[in-house]
Specification:
Strand content: 15-25%
Strand order of the largest sheet: 4-5-7-6
Largest sheet: 4 strands, mixed
Shape: elongated
Structural class: alpha+beta
Helix content: 40-55%
Length: 218
């Protein structure tokens, strides 16, 4: 049965409806699902979300895809996206996402998934679709959005000037000047307007300064 199921489901990550449709030729498919979980042929990540067990996996599952599936609408952002884009050096254990809905937190057999709320107007700006093998994809914040979301979420910073913003970026987040100079200040300005955030306007000014400094040293 698992071999037939594996033929019908191409991806490593799938939901309950896909699983049910793949078992529609069997009597009592819900009992089959329970049996597959007990055999570790499939793993229940969260109610209605599954991956194949290690023995039957064709490729590593994607925690980013799972993050999109577990709670939505959402896109991977904040610390996880900053590390993914190479902006911050430290690895991030939890997969962090932003959502226009209520903030949530899910502890699962494959890790921790955290969702932080952003304003409805700011949510859709700067979302990219990342393609993986097998036709799979997930939604990820571009570097500018990930940083803007982080600054918005980090409410205790109290940044009021460009010098304080520089210090926060380079000392607290440990983003180097070269990477800051590569960011698109125009995208940040759009996000600042959607967030109605003075701090993000400061961020745009600082990013522009880093770009100018980088060009002078070329």
């Amino acid at each position: 049965m698992i071999e037939e199921l594996r033929r019908r489901i191409e991806g490593e990550e799938f939901d309950y409806q896909v699983l049910l449709d793949s078992l529609k030729g069997y009597e009592r498919p819900r009992d089959k699902i329970t049996s597959l979980i007990r055999q570790d042929a499939i793993v229940r990540v969260k109610k209605g979300i599954y991956i194949f067990g290690q023995k039957y996996a064709r490729r590593p599952f994607s925690r980013e895809i799972l993050a999109n599936m577990i709670y939505g609408p959402s896109c991977v952002s904040l610390d996880y996206a900053l590390h993914y884009h190479g902006l911050i050096p430290e690895g991030v254990e939890a997969v962090t996402s932003v959502t226009s809905g209520r903030g949530r937190r899910f502890s699962t057999p494959v890790g921790l998934f955290i969702y932080r709320t952003v304003p409805m107007g700011a949510y859709p700006v700067g979302i990219d679709q990342v393609q993986l093998e097998g036709g799979r994809s997930f939604l990820m914040a571009v570097p500018e959005k990930a940083l803007a979301d982080k600054i918005h979420d980090d409410r205790g910073t109290g940044i009021r000037s460009q010098s304080e913003m520089r210090r926060y970026l380079q000392e607290s987040l440990r983003i180097d000047a070269e990477n800051l100079g590569k960011l698109n200040a125009d995208t940040i300005i759009i996000l600042a307007g959607r967030y109605r955030s003075r701090k993000l306007r400061l961020l745009s000014d600082v990013v522009s300064r880093f770009r100018e400094e980088g060009e002078r040293h070329e």
